[in-house]
Amino acid sequence: MMCEELKEMYELYAMGVSGDPERNEIAAHLARGCDACTHGVKLALQTVSFLGSIAPMVDPPARLRARVLAIAASQPKSNRFWNWQQAWMAAAAALTLLSLGLWNQLIGIDRSLDEARQQILAMTESQEKDRATIQRARGALSFLNQPETRLVTSSGSTIELPPKARVFVNRRSGVLLMAGNLPKLGPGKIYEMWLIPKGGAPVPAGLFQPDETGTAMHIRPGEMDVAATAAVAISVEPESGSTAPTTTPILVMGL
Amino acid sequence: MFFPILFALADAKADREIAKRLKNREQDALGQLYDRYGRLVYSIIFRIVKNSAVAEDLVQETFLRVWNRVQGFDEEKGALGPWVLTVARNRAIDYLRSIDGRMSQSMYELSGNESPEMFGNLEKDMLNSDRARVLHEAFKKLNENQKTVIELAYFEGLSQTEMAEKMNQPLGTVKTWVRTALQALRNELGEALTA
Questions:
Q1: Mutation to test the A interface, candidates B24, B26, B39, B159, most A Cβ within 10 Å
Q2: CATH placement of domain A162-254
Q3: Which residues 6+ apart lie within 8 Å of B121 measured at CB?
Q4: Do B31 and A15 touch (CB under 8 A)?
Q5: Which residue, A48, A49, A131, B6, is most buried by CB atoms nearer than 10 A?
Q6: pLDDT over threshold 50, residue B107
Protein backbone atom coordinates (compact mmCIF):
# COMPACT_ATOMS: atom_id res chain seq x y z
CA MET A 1 0.00 0.00 0.00
CA MET A 2 1.08 3.57 -0.64
CA CYS A 3 1.80 6.03 2.16
CA GLU A 4 -1.16 8.12 1.02
CA GLU A 5 -3.48 5.19 1.69
CA LEU A 6 -2.02 4.62 5.14
CA LYS A 7 -1.92 8.12 6.55
CA GLU A 8 -5.51 8.01 7.88
CA MET A 9 -4.47 5.04 10.01
CA TYR A 10 -1.43 6.61 11.69
CA GLU A 11 -3.30 7.56 14.88
CA LEU A 12 -4.88 4.11 15.24
CA TYR A 13 -1.45 2.55 14.70
CA ALA A 14 -0.01 4.91 17.31
CA MET A 15 -2.66 3.72 19.76
CA GLY A 16 -1.91 0.08 18.93
CA VAL A 17 -5.47 -0.57 17.74
CA SER A 18 -5.14 -0.62 13.95
CA GLY A 19 -6.28 -3.71 12.07
CA ASP A 20 -4.77 -5.68 9.25
CA PRO A 21 -3.67 -5.17 6.55
CA GLU A 22 -2.92 -1.52 7.46
CA ARG A 23 -1.08 -2.46 10.65
CA ASN A 24 1.36 -4.74 8.86
CA GLU A 25 1.75 -2.27 6.00
CA ILE A 26 2.65 0.63 8.31
CA ALA A 27 5.04 -1.61 10.26
CA ALA A 28 6.70 -2.60 6.98
CA HIS A 29 7.02 1.05 5.89
CA LEU A 30 8.60 1.93 9.23
CA ALA A 31 10.94 -1.05 9.07
CA ARG A 32 12.29 0.03 5.71
CA GLY A 33 12.74 3.63 6.88
CA CYS A 34 9.92 5.23 4.90
CA ASP A 35 10.28 8.97 5.65
CA ALA A 36 6.62 9.85 5.14
CA CYS A 37 5.27 7.10 7.38
CA THR A 38 7.96 7.58 10.03
CA HIS A 39 7.16 11.28 10.23
CA GLY A 40 3.42 10.61 10.18
CA VAL A 41 3.55 8.02 12.94
CA LYS A 42 5.82 10.18 15.07
CA LEU A 43 3.39 13.07 14.76
CA ALA A 44 0.47 10.74 15.49
CA LEU A 45 2.22 9.41 18.61
CA GLN A 46 2.56 12.94 19.96
CA THR A 47 -0.99 13.86 19.03
CA VAL A 48 -2.44 10.72 20.56
CA SER A 49 -0.47 11.21 23.76
CA PHE A 50 -2.39 14.44 24.33
CA LEU A 51 -5.65 12.49 24.40
CA GLY A 52 -4.56 11.68 27.93
CA SER A 53 -5.80 15.14 28.84
CA ILE A 54 -9.36 13.80 28.49
CA ALA A 55 -8.86 11.71 31.61
CA PRO A 56 -10.28 13.28 34.77
CA MET A 57 -7.41 14.46 36.95
CA VAL A 58 -6.90 12.34 40.06
CA ASP A 59 -4.39 13.00 42.81
CA PRO A 60 -2.04 10.05 43.34
CA PRO A 61 -1.37 8.97 46.93
CA ALA A 62 1.56 10.83 48.48
CA ARG A 63 3.48 7.58 49.05
CA LEU A 64 3.73 6.99 45.32
CA ARG A 65 6.44 9.59 44.84
CA ALA A 66 8.69 7.75 47.29
CA ARG A 67 8.02 4.45 45.50
CA VAL A 68 9.02 5.99 42.19
CA LEU A 69 12.16 7.56 43.64
CA ALA A 70 13.12 4.19 45.09
CA ILE A 71 13.70 3.11 41.49
CA ALA A 72 16.61 5.48 41.11
CA ALA A 73 17.95 4.72 44.56
CA SER A 74 18.17 1.03 43.66
CA GLN A 75 20.12 1.73 40.47
CA PRO A 76 23.78 2.65 39.97
CA LYS A 77 24.18 6.33 40.79
CA SER A 78 25.91 7.20 37.55
CA ASN A 79 26.56 5.38 34.32
CA ARG A 80 28.74 8.10 32.98
CA PHE A 81 32.31 7.02 32.95
CA TRP A 82 33.59 10.52 33.57
CA ASN A 83 32.52 13.84 34.91
CA TRP A 84 34.29 16.92 33.50
CA GLN A 85 36.98 17.05 36.15
CA GLN A 86 37.70 13.39 35.75
CA ALA A 87 37.62 13.79 31.98
CA TRP A 88 40.58 16.21 32.00
CA MET A 89 42.56 13.87 34.17
CA ALA A 90 41.55 10.94 32.03
CA ALA A 91 42.56 12.79 28.86
CA ALA A 92 46.06 13.24 30.23
CA ALA A 93 46.16 9.64 31.32
CA ALA A 94 44.90 8.58 27.91
CA LEU A 95 47.94 10.09 26.20
CA THR A 96 50.14 7.94 28.37
CA LEU A 97 48.01 4.88 27.78
CA LEU A 98 48.11 5.48 24.04
CA SER A 99 51.86 5.37 24.13
CA LEU A 100 51.65 2.09 25.98
CA GLY A 101 49.21 0.66 23.44
CA LEU A 102 46.54 0.09 26.06
CA TRP A 103 43.92 2.50 24.77
CA ASN A 104 42.04 -0.01 22.69
CA GLN A 105 41.83 -2.35 25.62
CA LEU A 106 40.38 0.40 27.80
CA ILE A 107 37.76 1.24 25.19
CA GLY A 108 36.86 -2.41 25.03
CA ILE A 109 36.49 -2.64 28.78
CA ASP A 110 34.40 0.54 28.87
CA ARG A 111 32.11 -0.81 26.15
CA SER A 112 31.77 -4.13 27.94
CA LEU A 113 30.90 -2.36 31.17
CA ASP A 114 28.26 -0.28 29.40
CA GLU A 115 26.77 -3.37 27.78
CA ALA A 116 26.73 -5.23 31.08
CA ARG A 117 25.11 -2.24 32.78
CA GLN A 118 22.39 -2.05 30.11
CA GLN A 119 21.71 -5.76 30.50
CA ILE A 120 21.38 -5.41 34.26
CA LEU A 121 18.98 -2.47 33.83
CA ALA A 122 16.85 -4.43 31.38
CA MET A 123 16.75 -7.45 33.68
CA THR A 124 15.83 -5.27 36.66
CA GLU A 125 12.99 -3.73 34.69
CA SER A 126 11.74 -7.10 33.56
CA GLN A 127 11.93 -8.58 37.06
CA GLU A 128 10.07 -5.62 38.54
CA LYS A 129 7.27 -6.02 36.03
CA ASP A 130 7.07 -9.78 36.48
CA ARG A 131 6.99 -9.38 40.25
CA ALA A 132 4.15 -6.86 40.09
CA THR A 133 2.20 -9.06 37.67
CA ILE A 134 2.63 -12.15 39.81
CA GLN A 135 1.63 -10.25 42.96
CA ARG A 136 -1.55 -9.08 41.28
CA ALA A 137 -2.31 -12.52 39.91
CA ARG A 138 -1.69 -14.16 43.30
CA GLY A 139 -3.96 -11.65 45.00
CA ALA A 140 -6.71 -12.30 42.48
CA LEU A 141 -6.30 -16.07 42.74
CA SER A 142 -6.35 -15.96 46.51
CA PHE A 143 -9.57 -13.97 46.40
CA LEU A 144 -11.19 -16.28 43.85
CA ASN A 145 -10.23 -19.42 45.73
CA GLN A 146 -11.67 -18.49 49.09
CA PRO A 147 -14.59 -20.88 49.74
CA GLU A 148 -16.99 -18.02 50.53
CA THR A 149 -16.32 -16.22 47.21
CA ARG A 150 -19.38 -16.35 44.96
CA LEU A 151 -20.04 -14.88 41.54
CA VAL A 152 -22.85 -12.34 41.63
CA THR A 153 -24.75 -11.91 38.38
CA SER A 154 -26.51 -8.79 37.14
CA SER A 155 -29.82 -10.34 38.24
CA GLY A 156 -28.54 -10.53 41.80
CA SER A 157 -28.30 -14.31 42.02
CA THR A 158 -25.08 -15.99 43.18
CA ILE A 159 -23.50 -19.02 41.57
CA GLU A 160 -20.57 -21.31 42.26
CA LEU A 161 -17.41 -20.27 40.49
CA PRO A 162 -16.40 -22.52 37.61
CA PRO A 163 -12.78 -23.52 36.95
CA LYS A 164 -10.78 -20.56 35.68
CA ALA A 165 -7.28 -20.08 34.37
CA ARG A 166 -4.99 -17.32 33.26
CA VAL A 167 -2.23 -18.05 30.82
CA PHE A 168 0.93 -15.98 30.33
CA VAL A 169 3.01 -16.66 27.24
CA ASN A 170 6.55 -15.60 26.48
CA ARG A 171 8.27 -16.62 23.27
CA ARG A 172 11.58 -17.10 25.08
CA SER A 173 10.40 -18.49 28.41
CA GLY A 174 7.34 -20.57 27.54
CA VAL A 175 3.91 -20.70 29.18
CA LEU A 176 2.80 -19.94 32.72
CA LEU A 177 -0.61 -21.28 33.72
CA MET A 178 -2.37 -20.05 36.85
CA ALA A 179 -5.64 -21.85 37.50
CA GLY A 180 -8.26 -21.81 40.22
CA ASN A 181 -11.42 -23.68 41.22
CA LEU A 182 -10.12 -26.88 39.63
CA PRO A 183 -12.17 -29.89 40.76
CA LYS A 184 -10.39 -32.39 42.96
CA LEU A 185 -9.46 -35.45 40.93
CA GLY A 186 -10.00 -39.07 41.80
CA PRO A 187 -7.14 -41.52 42.31
CA GLY A 188 -4.97 -42.21 39.26
CA LYS A 189 -5.95 -38.96 37.55
CA ILE A 190 -3.96 -35.80 36.84
CA TYR A 191 -4.34 -32.55 34.92
CA GLU A 192 -2.38 -32.16 31.70
CA MET A 193 -1.70 -28.91 29.85
CA TRP A 194 -1.70 -28.80 26.04
CA LEU A 195 -0.39 -26.32 23.49
CA ILE A 196 -2.64 -26.36 20.45
CA PRO A 197 -0.88 -25.17 17.29
CA LYS A 198 -2.88 -23.43 14.59
CA GLY A 199 -4.10 -26.24 12.36
CA GLY A 200 -2.21 -28.88 14.31
CA ALA A 201 -2.74 -31.57 16.94
CA PRO A 202 -2.40 -30.72 20.68
CA VAL A 203 1.13 -31.01 22.04
CA PRO A 204 1.66 -32.18 25.67
CA ALA A 205 2.89 -29.34 27.88
CA GLY A 206 3.24 -30.99 31.28
CA LEU A 207 1.30 -32.60 34.13
CA PHE A 208 0.19 -30.91 37.35
CA GLN A 209 -2.00 -31.34 40.42
CA PRO A 210 -3.87 -28.48 42.09
CA ASP A 211 -3.56 -27.86 45.82
CA GLU A 212 -6.40 -28.50 48.25
CA THR A 213 -8.07 -25.18 47.31
CA GLY A 214 -8.14 -26.10 43.62
CA THR A 215 -5.32 -23.70 42.78
CA ALA A 216 -2.49 -24.67 40.43
CA MET A 217 0.50 -22.95 38.93
CA HIS A 218 2.27 -24.74 36.11
CA ILE A 219 5.10 -23.68 33.81
CA ARG A 220 6.07 -25.21 30.48
CA PRO A 221 9.56 -23.71 30.16
CA GLY A 222 11.47 -23.15 26.94
CA GLU A 223 10.92 -21.26 23.73
CA MET A 224 7.54 -21.24 22.03
CA ASP A 225 6.14 -19.90 18.79
CA VAL A 226 3.38 -17.67 20.16
CA ALA A 227 2.15 -16.62 16.72
CA ALA A 228 1.74 -20.24 15.62
CA THR A 229 -0.13 -21.27 18.77
CA ALA A 230 -3.92 -21.12 18.70
CA ALA A 231 -4.72 -22.04 22.28
CA VAL A 232 -3.66 -23.53 25.59
CA ALA A 233 -5.93 -26.23 27.04
CA ILE A 234 -6.27 -28.36 30.17
CA SER A 235 -7.71 -31.86 30.31
CA VAL A 236 -7.96 -34.66 32.88
CA GLU A 237 -5.68 -37.59 32.05
CA PRO A 238 -4.35 -40.81 33.59
CA GLU A 239 -1.62 -39.94 36.08
CA SER A 240 1.11 -41.18 33.73
CA GLY A 241 0.02 -38.51 31.25
CA SER A 242 -1.13 -38.85 27.64
CA THR A 243 0.37 -38.05 24.28
CA ALA A 244 -3.02 -36.79 23.07
CA PRO A 245 -6.06 -35.67 25.10
CA THR A 246 -8.26 -38.60 26.13
CA THR A 247 -11.00 -36.42 27.64
CA THR A 248 -12.68 -33.20 26.59
CA PRO A 249 -10.60 -30.28 27.88
CA ILE A 250 -12.14 -28.54 30.87
CA LEU A 251 -10.55 -25.24 29.87
CA VAL A 252 -9.38 -23.85 26.54
CA MET A 253 -7.67 -20.45 26.45
CA GLY A 254 -7.32 -18.94 22.98
CA LEU A 255 -4.21 -16.84 22.32
CA MET B 1 -8.90 20.42 35.13
CA PHE B 2 -6.97 20.73 31.90
CA PHE B 3 -4.36 23.11 33.25
CA PRO B 4 -1.90 20.50 34.57
CA ILE B 5 -1.18 19.09 31.13
CA LEU B 6 -0.72 22.60 29.72
CA PHE B 7 1.54 23.51 32.58
CA ALA B 8 3.61 20.37 32.24
CA LEU B 9 3.95 20.50 28.47
CA ALA B 10 4.56 24.23 28.19
CA ASP B 11 8.08 24.28 29.52
CA ALA B 12 10.12 22.50 26.89
CA LYS B 13 13.35 23.94 28.28
CA ALA B 14 12.71 22.37 31.67
CA ASP B 15 11.97 19.04 29.96
CA ARG B 16 15.27 19.19 28.10
CA GLU B 17 17.12 19.85 31.32
CA ILE B 18 15.37 16.98 33.12
CA ALA B 19 16.07 14.59 30.25
CA LYS B 20 19.72 15.57 30.22
CA ARG B 21 20.01 14.97 33.96
CA LEU B 22 18.15 11.66 33.73
CA LYS B 23 20.69 10.55 31.14
CA ASN B 24 23.40 11.51 33.63
CA ARG B 25 21.62 9.20 36.12
CA GLU B 26 20.94 12.05 38.54
CA GLN B 27 18.42 10.60 40.94
CA ASP B 28 16.70 13.85 41.87
CA ALA B 29 15.88 14.38 38.18
CA LEU B 30 13.50 11.44 38.47
CA GLY B 31 11.78 13.29 41.30
CA GLN B 32 11.44 16.36 39.10
CA LEU B 33 10.05 14.26 36.29
CA TYR B 34 7.52 12.76 38.69
CA ASP B 35 6.57 16.21 40.00
CA ARG B 36 5.86 17.38 36.44
CA TYR B 37 4.09 14.33 35.07
CA GLY B 38 3.22 12.06 38.01
CA ARG B 39 -0.32 13.36 38.43
CA LEU B 40 -1.04 13.18 34.71
CA VAL B 41 0.43 9.71 34.47
CA TYR B 42 -1.55 8.48 37.46
CA SER B 43 -4.77 10.03 36.13
CA ILE B 44 -4.40 8.39 32.70
CA ILE B 45 -3.53 5.01 34.17
CA PHE B 46 -6.30 5.20 36.78
CA ARG B 47 -8.84 6.11 34.08
CA ILE B 48 -7.78 2.98 32.18
CA VAL B 49 -7.44 0.37 34.95
CA LYS B 50 -9.94 1.86 37.43
CA ASN B 51 -8.03 0.42 40.38
CA SER B 52 -5.79 2.53 42.59
CA ALA B 53 -3.46 -0.30 43.71
CA VAL B 54 -2.87 -1.44 40.14
CA ALA B 55 -2.47 2.17 39.02
CA GLU B 56 0.28 2.70 41.60
CA ASP B 57 2.16 -0.38 40.35
CA LEU B 58 1.85 0.79 36.76
CA VAL B 59 2.99 4.33 37.55
CA GLN B 60 6.10 2.83 39.10
CA GLU B 61 6.62 0.64 36.02
CA THR B 62 6.21 3.71 33.81
CA PHE B 63 8.92 5.72 35.53
CA LEU B 64 11.18 2.67 35.77
CA ARG B 65 10.90 2.19 32.02
CA VAL B 66 11.62 5.86 31.33
CA TRP B 67 14.59 5.76 33.71
CA ASN B 68 16.00 2.66 32.04
CA ARG B 69 15.46 3.79 28.44
CA VAL B 70 16.23 7.48 28.61
CA GLN B 71 19.69 6.94 27.12
CA GLY B 72 18.01 6.56 23.72
CA PHE B 73 16.11 9.84 24.12
CA ASP B 74 17.33 12.94 22.30
CA GLU B 75 16.98 15.69 24.89
CA GLU B 76 17.52 18.43 22.30
CA LYS B 77 14.93 17.34 19.74
CA GLY B 78 12.75 14.94 21.70
CA ALA B 79 9.31 15.43 23.25
CA LEU B 80 9.69 14.16 26.82
CA GLY B 81 6.10 14.69 27.95
CA PRO B 82 4.45 12.82 25.06
CA TRP B 83 6.96 9.98 25.51
CA VAL B 84 6.22 9.64 29.23
CA LEU B 85 2.45 9.79 28.64
CA THR B 86 2.72 7.17 25.90
CA VAL B 87 4.74 4.81 28.09
CA ALA B 88 2.15 5.27 30.85
CA ARG B 89 -0.83 4.61 28.59
CA ASN B 90 0.88 1.56 27.08
CA ARG B 91 1.58 0.07 30.51
CA ALA B 92 -2.07 0.41 31.44
CA ILE B 93 -3.37 -0.95 28.13
CA ASP B 94 -0.89 -3.84 28.41
CA TYR B 95 -2.33 -4.64 31.83
CA LEU B 96 -5.90 -4.34 30.58
CA ARG B 97 -5.18 -6.64 27.66
CA SER B 98 -3.36 -9.15 29.85
CA ILE B 99 -6.37 -9.58 32.14
CA ASP B 100 -8.67 -9.71 29.11
CA GLY B 101 -6.56 -12.41 27.45
CA ARG B 102 -5.46 -10.08 24.65
CA MET B 103 -1.76 -10.21 25.52
CA SER B 104 -0.48 -11.30 22.13
CA GLN B 105 -1.94 -8.20 20.52
CA SER B 106 -0.28 -5.90 23.02
CA MET B 107 3.11 -7.51 22.60
CA TYR B 108 2.76 -7.15 18.87
CA GLU B 109 1.86 -3.51 18.72
CA LEU B 110 2.63 -1.41 21.73
CA SER B 111 6.27 -2.15 22.40
CA GLY B 112 7.49 -0.56 19.17
CA ASN B 113 5.43 2.57 19.67
CA GLU B 114 7.21 3.84 22.72
CA SER B 115 10.86 3.72 21.82
CA PRO B 116 12.36 7.10 22.68
CA GLU B 117 13.57 7.50 19.10
CA MET B 118 9.94 7.80 17.99
CA PHE B 119 9.60 11.00 20.02
CA GLY B 120 12.41 12.96 18.46
CA ASN B 121 13.31 14.91 15.32
CA LEU B 122 9.94 16.53 14.69
CA GLU B 123 9.70 20.07 13.45
CA LYS B 124 8.57 22.39 16.19
CA ASP B 125 5.43 23.43 14.31
CA MET B 126 3.59 24.05 17.51
CA LEU B 127 4.43 23.98 21.15
CA ASN B 128 3.25 20.79 22.76
CA SER B 129 1.07 22.81 25.08
CA ASP B 130 -0.67 24.46 22.10
CA ARG B 131 -1.22 21.10 20.44
CA ALA B 132 -2.63 19.63 23.66
CA ARG B 133 -4.98 22.58 24.13
CA VAL B 134 -6.21 22.47 20.54
CA LEU B 135 -6.75 18.72 20.71
CA HIS B 136 -8.63 18.98 23.97
CA GLU B 137 -10.94 21.65 22.56
CA ALA B 138 -11.39 19.68 19.33
CA PHE B 139 -12.37 16.57 21.28
CA LYS B 140 -15.08 18.50 23.10
CA LYS B 141 -16.60 19.44 19.72
CA LEU B 142 -17.01 15.80 18.60
CA ASN B 143 -20.45 14.23 18.76
CA GLU B 144 -21.13 11.57 21.39
CA ASN B 145 -20.49 8.59 19.11
CA GLN B 146 -17.21 10.05 17.93
CA LYS B 147 -16.13 10.75 21.51
CA THR B 148 -17.04 7.21 22.52
CA VAL B 149 -14.96 5.52 19.82
CA ILE B 150 -11.93 7.71 20.54
CA GLU B 151 -12.23 6.91 24.24
CA LEU B 152 -12.61 3.19 23.53
CA ALA B 153 -9.48 3.27 21.40
CA TYR B 154 -7.36 5.35 23.77
CA PHE B 155 -8.58 4.23 27.20
CA GLU B 156 -9.52 0.62 26.44
CA GLY B 157 -7.19 -0.16 23.54
CA LEU B 158 -10.02 -1.59 21.47
CA SER B 159 -9.73 -2.15 17.73
CA GLN B 160 -12.55 -1.01 15.49
CA THR B 161 -13.86 -4.57 15.34
CA GLU B 162 -13.88 -4.82 19.13
CA MET B 163 -15.61 -1.43 19.38
CA ALA B 164 -18.32 -2.61 17.00
CA GLU B 165 -18.93 -5.67 19.18
CA LYS B 166 -18.97 -3.66 22.38
CA MET B 167 -21.24 -0.96 21.00
CA ASN B 168 -23.39 -3.49 19.15
CA GLN B 169 -23.06 -1.47 15.96
CA PRO B 170 -22.10 -2.45 12.40
CA LEU B 171 -18.34 -2.34 11.78
CA GLY B 172 -18.82 0.08 8.89
CA THR B 173 -20.66 2.53 11.15
CA VAL B 174 -17.92 2.38 13.76
CA LYS B 175 -15.24 2.88 11.12
CA THR B 176 -17.08 5.97 9.91
CA TRP B 177 -17.26 7.40 13.43
CA VAL B 178 -13.54 6.73 13.95
CA ARG B 179 -12.54 8.16 10.59
CA THR B 180 -14.62 11.32 10.96
CA ALA B 181 -13.49 11.82 14.56
CA LEU B 182 -9.82 11.56 13.67
CA GLN B 183 -10.36 13.77 10.64
CA ALA B 184 -12.00 16.41 12.82
CA LEU B 185 -9.11 16.31 15.30
CA ARG B 186 -6.58 16.55 12.45
CA ASN B 187 -8.46 19.46 10.87
CA GLU B 188 -8.49 21.42 14.12
CA LEU B 189 -4.77 20.83 14.60
CA GLY B 190 -4.11 21.77 10.98
CA GLU B 191 -6.10 24.99 11.26
CA ALA B 192 -4.25 25.88 14.40
CA LEU B 193 -0.96 25.32 12.61
CA THR B 194 -1.85 27.66 9.77
CA ALA B 195 -3.60 30.27 11.92
A1: B159
A2: 2.60.40
A3: A42, B74, B77
A4: no
A5: A49
A6: no
